[in-house]
Structure formats: C-alpha cells, structure tokens
Write a structure and sequence with these properties.
Blueprint lengths: L10 H22 L6 H8 L9 H19 L6 H11 L25 H12 L4
Helix pairs in contact: 1-2, 1-3, 3-4
C-alpha cells in the first residue's frame, strides 16, 4: 500500500515546522509516560536549563523522548521494524530490561479485567431485555 504525501514542504519549511512543534510534541509524549511537567518546564529540560520541582526521573524521561524524536527526524530511509526497535531502545533506556526488542510470551496488563466475548454478550443482552 502506497501512501501519498498530502503536502509538499521544502527543506526550510520542514525545519520551520520541526522548530515550531518540537517542544509541544515532546511535552505531549511525556504525558503518556505520566510526566507532570508544564510546557515551560519541558522546554527548559530540552534546552538544558535548570528546572524547579521536576524529579530527576521525569527529567530523564523527557531527555530520552527528545533523543527518540531527534532520531526520528534525522532517520533517513524507509520505515522498517528495525526503526521502531531503535526508537524503543532510545526511549526505554534505563526503564526496560530488554529494550529495543520485541516482547514474546504472555503479557499481562495490570488493573484490567479480561472477559470472554460470550460473557460480555450475555451481560449486554441481559440489560437490554429489562423493562422499566
């Protein structure tokens, strides 16, 4: 499947877009890692300035996200699985035991109840048949 570009940007336009949105992207990604920094704190961390009230762990996460995003921007070539593994190796540094590899085996998601499809169907049909 081929995906065509919707926009054609010159290299200078691309650089401008990166410069304008780099901090915002890192800040948004850090929210997925449960980092509670403000945009200004994220900007200070990325620029190497000192920050107040930000844990060293959160600072490390923001810096790893910065390195991962920089890798994506500088990566030249088609997307391959190895690209995702390399990005994972960067952002999961010091966090995962086996970073940069695919997980195999059973994966458990904590705090989530997994039900069979049949059970959910019975529960829904039970509620639909109620008459008030």
């Amino acid at each position: 499947m081929s995906i065509n570009d919707r926009f054609t940007l010159t290299p200078s336009d691309q650089q401008l877009a990166i410069d304008q949105h780099f901090i915002s992207i890192i800040h948004a990604l850090s929210r997925f890692e449960d980092v509670q920094t403000t945009r200004e704190q994220t900007k200070a961390i990325v620029n190497g300035d000192s920050t107040m009230n930000v844990s060293p762990e959160d600072q490390a996460i923001v810096l790893r996200l910065k390195r991962g995003l920089t890798y994506i921007i500088e990566h030249d070539g088609p997307y391959q699985l190895q690209t995702s593994l390399a990005i994972n190796g960067i952002v999961a540094q010091d966090e995962a035991l086996d970073r940069g590899t695919l997980r195999t085996g059973q994966i458990q998601i904590g705090g989530v109840r997994l039900w069979s499809r049949q059970f959910r169907f019975k529960q829904r049909s039970k509620h639909k048949s109620r008459v008030f």
